[in-house]
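Quick illustration for those who missed Monday's session on complexes.
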Amino acid sequence: MRVDLHNHTTLCNHASGSIDEYISKAVELGINIYGFSCHAPMDFDSKYRMTFEELDEYHKMIIEAKKKYENQIEILMGLEVDFIKGREYLLDKKVLQYPCDYLIGSIHFIDEWGFDNPEFIGEYAKKDIDEYWKKYLQSIQKMAESRFFQIVGHFDLLKIFGYKPTESIFPYIKETLQVIRETEMVIEINAAGFRKPIKEQYPDFKILEYAKKIGIPITFGSDAHSIDQVGFGYEKCLQIAKKIGYKKAIYFKNKNPYSFSL
Ligand SMILES: [Zn+2]
Ligand SMILES: [Zn+2]
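Prediction with zinc ion bound:
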């Protein structure tokens, strides 16, 4: 069985292709369960996400697609929600309680810094990256502890432009994984990193090994923002998961986990 839970739509203003095109490609690739998880509305950085008014439209489009393709593929509705430590007030009740299949909790901001945006890449040179890794990991811990989310989005996204954590950060990574374990979240193996300067999946092999060791389940996401990115990098992610010893992965329906064999 093949599952891909992280895919965007044009509602976030930085993706292309219609929902039908995404689904056709997914069917063509033999994906069995395909989830949309576009950027949820938030009163922050609003040009990169759907508006609150569009949330119902998104829901309607996906429910229609679910019906339309029910004999070919199972379509799920998720949302990727920004968690910004120190700005938890931005989390919106309507989003958190929306009747969807799952919420992906993602950190794209440390304080004001949108660190995955190439526009602000210059900031990396100015910062003590280890300090920012600690802040980043603390944000993930807070996100997990909120218990609003089912899936940790792109666990080590801060490495996107090549600034991987040093060995001294690994204890903080372990501590963060423990919190994820305790809060019963699932980590996605996200293929988008293969398309970025870091050229590897999120999270890296060593992190996944530790996640496996302490019993954190996984899922898969291509983080597609265009049709050609649907299913991108899946084979590599699957091989990595198997090499680490994962035999099962998870998807969510109505926020309940379901396990399937790899
Ligand atoms: Zn995006
Ligand atoms: Zn993301």
